[in-house]
Amino acid sequence: MKIAVIGLGYIGLPTAIMFANHEQQVVGIDLKENVVNMLNTGRIHIEEPGLQAELHRALQAGNFQAQLDVEAADVFIIAVPTPNRPDIYLSCDLTHVKDAVRKTIPFLKPGNVLILESTIAPRTTEDVVKPMLEEAGFIVGEDIFLVHCPERVLPGKIIHELVYNNRIIGGLTPNCVEAGKKVYGVFVQGELIETTAGAAELSKLMENTYRDVNIALANELAKIGDTLGINALEVIEMANKHPRVNLHAPGPGVGGHCLAVDPYFIVAATPENTPLIQQARAINNSMPHFILEKVKDFMTTIDGKKITVCGVTYKGNVDDIRESPAIEIIHLLEQEAALEVTVFDPHVKASWIEPVLEEAVANADLLLILTDHSEFKTWTATQLAGMKQKNILDTKNVIPELEKVAIYNMGNLHEMHRGNKKLVSTTE
Asked: Which residues form a coiled coil (predicted)?
């Protein structure tokens, strides 16, 4: 098969390369000329373990090339961004999806398969994309096979999970489902789950909403523990020993282009039926301001000035800063005239990020850990020797116990009012 993948981001690029390395001829299309040039010269533009080697293999075999324009193919896979619209419910912005469909239509011919991998609002495939194809003269399910097949992969493990995760195949007709199964059967070893396009859309959204709601519960517990003087992390650890309980971990907020975005697509579709989802979003969105207030109070207590923020990505060991709560927290801190903010992240290169840890922590009164990068888990007291005052607020609970360093986390926030009069470890 010849496969055209439109959108070469965190999902589109690995998907395209996976097909290419399973003996399919793949063209990857992206609007960004620098991305196209980088890929054609053998360099990936995103951080994902194993992806660089997979790209090299695909190029060596002659099975992949990147370009700016769509061309004829047997299968078209749309994997473009779907951000929130700036409306009251932050609904799904389908601008990029509709643009990709329009650019694809002139190249469609009977027997082609059109697959939407982009995360979309419920009923988008049937109510938005299908009419576009019908207006162009196609009969969906006979001429063109239209499928929604959402991605279900974890950044950092995308190569493995593309192959071994179950895959939802949501077709508008049974023939569409079968066409989708034939495409993904090229490399997917997990179950190919047959369903309707609408059910596939809502399933993807609910997978992320489930996690968002459970994180909100954990974040609410962290606030409760702070008020009542009870270690919330200890409570979670004990509660999770119950065979039917699985509380998530609290943190500084929720980021990424899934958990912080997708729940709104459901809310916008039926706001009257989603009070729980809306409340969970409000709780998670409140966490950056909650962290800000804890930091401000603590800095006043210790008469501190410099804060070193460690980690700006939305999750550990990636370079993805989309919707990252760390970015919001940094902006909030920078608005405080009494504070000086330095940022460190070994996975992100930018002019506003100090690349050397020892330089970043020099004269700091507080380290604020906002991402769970593996590098942070092996820090030593020697690396932090240049700090003015040895205090860490570890919102991800990853820092090891360090000699003569006061470590606070989302479980013992209530201890912060004491300042560094008492050293507190992550194991308290």
From this structure: none
Active site residue 258: yes
Predicted model pTM: 0.92
Catalytic residue among 92, 258, 294, 390: 258
Indicate the SS3 state at residue 150: coil
* Domain edge (last residue) among 280, 300, 332: 280
Question: What CA–CA distance (Å, rounded) separates 366 from 298?
Answer: 9
Active-site position among 130, 181, 204, 390: 204
How many residues comprise the chain? 428
Residue 378 belongs to domain spanning? 284-421
Closest by Cα among 428, 371, 423, 372 to 402: 423
The 10s digit of each residue's pLDDT in 354-403 is: 999 999 999 999 999 999 999 999 999 999 999 999 999 999 999 999 98
Q: The domain that contains 240 carries what CATH number?
A: 1.10.1040.10
Lowest mean per-residue pLDDT among 226-230, 244-248, 351-355, 422-426: 422-426
**Structural element, H or E, at residue 193:** strand 192-196
Distance (Å, rounded) from C-alpha 127 to C-alpha 8?
Answer: 26
| CA atoms of 216 and 281, how far apart (whole Å) | 7
